[in-house]
Write a structure and sequence with these properties.
Blueprint (H helix, E strand, L loop, with lengths): L1 E10 L4 E7 L11 E3 L6 H13 L6 E6 L4 E4 L5 E3 L2 E3 L1 E11 L13 E8 L12 H12 L3 H6 L4 E11 L4 H8 L2 E2 L17 E10 L3 E2 H8 L5 E2 L2 H9 L8 E6 L12 E7 L2 E7 L5 E2 L3 E7 L1
Parallel strand pairs: 1-8, 11-17, 15-19
Antiparallel strand pairs: 1-3, 2-9, 4-8, 5-8, 6-7, 10-12, 12-19, 13-18, 14-19, 15-16, 16-17
Length: 303
């Protein structure tokens, strides 16, 4: 016999999913919020109750997206569960999807049960859902419930966030960083002489890598990159990012649009980075008035 349970896939406006680290877990293990269905309780009531019990999130802060009618089943490996005078050999979990429309300040992990929570981008779930079959089952339910994930969350926004991290820009020169990374140069002007303001970029920075949803005019990409006090990454940020642990997730073409621009676009320019396996190239681009696609955009903000 399998005990019924519920799991809540909760996503915010940055396309990040809410994960919990339970007191019974080691720090590296995470789970989707949820739990068992009580006797006489509906699945819908159970999922809202579990979310509130674990994280104090009110129903009004959750916008229902959908649910899966097919549960995920798993067997208990070592013990059976006895509940309501019944022996359970495993659990069957029903997944629900929600958009979080509240404020992070209302999220309060339940003491003695939830150690802490994290918002994790879709691309990084593999680093947190480490139990057997956990990642595969979760990805399948995300695909099923959030069938149009970009449209649900980004609306008319030009870009969606695919990576967030923090980097620490050091005093190394561009030449030193490039040699360490084994990079090749596309444009000879990409030198420390051409970028004489390295000291102003030293220290810790928040980094966002955003994926263009469709082709956009270069100037519009620059404006979108600078929203909410962000700024385009410089070559120092890009090379530092490549030396960080998060770089293992990066592949493809990247740009820092407007990093060589002034606001009136009199001198538009762009640092461009290409990563194809071990082949890494960095150079400059200039697309004034052109529509651009196929790039991930890198922007930064002081930590």
């Amino acid at each position: 016999m399998y005990r019924k349970g519920v799991s809540a896939l909760i996503i915010n406006n940055k396309n990040e999913f809410l994960l919990v680290n339970l007191e019974s877990f080691e720090d590296k293990y995470f789970a989707i919020p949820g739990g068992g269905v009580e006797l006489g309780e509906t699945l819908e009531n159970a999922v809202y109750r579990e979310i509130h019990e674990e994280l104090s999130i009110e129903k009004k802060s959750l916008q229902f997206v959908g649910q899966s009618d097919i549960p995920v089943r798993f067997k208990f490996k070592l013990i059976k569960m006895i509940r309501d005078d019944k022996d359970y050999e495993g659990s069957e979990r029903y997944f629900f999807g929600f958009c979080f429309v509240g404020d992070n300040n209302e999220i309060k992990p339940k003491k003695g049960e939830v150690r802490f929570y994290k918002w994790i981008p879709l691309i990084q779930l593999k680093d947190y859902l480490l139990f057997d079959g956990q990642l595969k089952d979760t990805q399948e339910k995300i695909k099923e419930i959030f069938s149009d994930l970009q449209q649900i969350q980004t609306g008319d926004k030009k870009m969606e966030t695919v990576l967030q991290c923090v980097i620490d820009v050091s005093e190394k020169t561009l030449k030193e960083m490039a040699e360490t990374l084994g990079m090749s140069w596309v444009n000879p002007r990409v030198t420390d002489t051409f970028y004489p303001f390295r000291d102003s970029f030293l220290g810790k920075w928040k980094v966002e890598v955003q994926r263009l949803r469709r082709k956009e005019k270069f100037e519009e990409i620059v404006r979108a990159t600078r929203e909410d006090n962000w700024q385009p990454a410089t070559i120092y940020h890009l090379l530092t990012l490549l030396t960080s642990p998060d770089s293992k997730h990066l592949s493809g073409s990247f740009m820092a649009p407007g990093s060589l621009c002034i606001d009136d676009f009199e001198y538009p320019g762009c640092v461009v980075l290409s990563i194809k396996g071990e082949d890494k190239k960095i150079g400059l681009g200039n697309w004034r008035g052109s529509k651009i696609g196929g790039y991930d955009v890198v922007r930064v903000k002081r930590e």
